[in-house]
Write a structure and sequence with these properties.
By secondary structure, the protein is an alpha/beta fold. It folds into two domains: 6-213, Spore Coat Polysaccharide Biosynthesis Protein SpsA, Chain A (Alpha-Beta Complex); 219-287, no CATH class. 47% of the residues lie in helices and 16% in strands. The protein contains 13 helices and eight strands. It has helices spanning 19-27, 47-57, 72-82, 101-109, 146-156, 169-175, 186-197, 216-221, 225-245, 249-266, 271-284, 295-304, 306-316; strands at 6-12, 34-41, 62-67, 87-90, 96-97, 117-125, 167-168, 201-212. The strands form two sheets. Strands 3-2-1-4-7 form a five-stranded mixed sheet, with helices on both faces. Strands 5-8-6 form a three-stranded mixed sheet. Helix 1 (19-27) links the parallel strand 1 (6-12) and strand 2. It is globular, with a radius of gyration of 20 Å. The model has no long low-confidence stretch (mean pLDDT 95).
């Protein structure tokens, strides 16, 4: 019986400085039955020439698509369409996989339903994978359902780097495309839909994804009005999708924390978006006191209230 094919989908936009290292980490996988689906998203920095070089060197392993710039979600959707794998591995063009990542996760999924998804730990690095830093997240573990994983993530303000998942094609076909209207949190919105279709979440404790810490330009772009407006819309998508599965107090409490964290991150910028988020909190109808942020901020919030704690935090910055 032939081993399942895994498609590693890599959208590329102006990543000439990093893409060789990323491609080498994908090609170095100990699991042999892989294809790399590379989607050049209108790069103007020489990335395409590097992709063409790798395509010439590994013609049986690499599918190359060149498109006019359309954004990461469109490039990812094109990659999914061009792929043939039974399983899909997403990989950002500047991140890396440990050599055993795919093999270990496939072993974990062997004999399981297509609607079981595998995760692993992701770690931060800048230039040297030997010098990485871990994050102490509770999402690095097994979960009975994708819904349970999402509620934990939202309540604790934890995230999963998209490369950490290994997902069966049947799940992705069921949830549909990445949302091309979003400019931030595209992966969070997409995997919200994926996880709500999943049964167990199985954590592989040896594999790693190396997440390259973003540069200052990336961070500044993520704090624009357009980005925050898109982020709030992605959270509205969370609410819409999860209510199709369960509308309960625990779900509404978790969503309240999502919107509160949005206000915490945006304050005092963009008052209209803060008002929108507060209105969404009000619509949830959760009367219980809810606290977010670090231990000190939570203590201050218990005494002064959330909004006054934000004002004090701003004054002390």
């Amino acid at each position: 019986m032939q081993e399942p094919l895994v498609s590693i989908i890599i959208p590329v936009f102006n990543k000439a400085a990093y893409i060789r290292e990323t491609l080498d980490s994908a090609l170095a996988q100990s699991y042999p039955n892989i294809e790399l689906v590379l989607v050049n998203d209108g790069s103007i920095d020489g990335s395409l020439a590097i992709l063409e070089e790798y395509k010439a060197r590994f013609p049986d392993k690499i599918v190359l698509v060149d498109q006019v710039n359309g954004g990461v979600s469109k490039a990812t959707n094109i990659g999914i369409q061009a792929s043939k794998g039974d399983y899909i591995q997403f990989l950002d063009a500047d991140d890396l996989l440990s050599p055993d990542k795919i093999e270990n996760q496939l072993r974990l999924l062997e004999g399981k339903s297509p609607f079981v998804i595998a995760s692993c730990e992701w770690v931060n690095f800048r230039d040297d994978t030997q010098n990485f830093s871990r994050v102490p997240y509770g999402v690095f573990g097994d979960f009975e359902t994708g819904l349970d994983w999402l509620l934990h993530s939202w309540n604790k303000q934890e995230m999963m780097q998209p490369g950490a998942w290994l997902t069966h094609r049947k799940v992705i076909e069921k949830v549909g495309d990445w949302d091309e209207s979003l400019v931030i949190n595209q992966d969070g919105e997409f995997f919200c839909r994926v996880l709500l279709k999943c049964q167990n979440i199985l954590f592989e404790n040896k594999a790693l994804v190396y997440y390259r810490i973003p540069g200052e330009n990336n961070v500044s772009q993520q704090k624009s009005y357009k980005a925050f407006k898109s982020l709030l819309f992605s959270f509205l998508c969370y609410e819409r999708e999860i209510f199709l599965i369960e509308d309960s107090k625990r779900v509404r409490m978790a969503l309240k924390r999502v919107y509160m964290k949005f206000i915490y991150d945006i304050y005092p910028l963009y008052p209209d978006l803060i008002k929108n988020a507060n209105d969404l909190i009000g619509n949830l109808g959760v009367d219980e006191k809810t606290f977010i942020g670090g231990p000190k901020f939570q203590q201050i919030s218990k005494v002064l209230g959330f909004e006054n704690a934000l004002r004090l935090k701003r004054l002390l910055q």
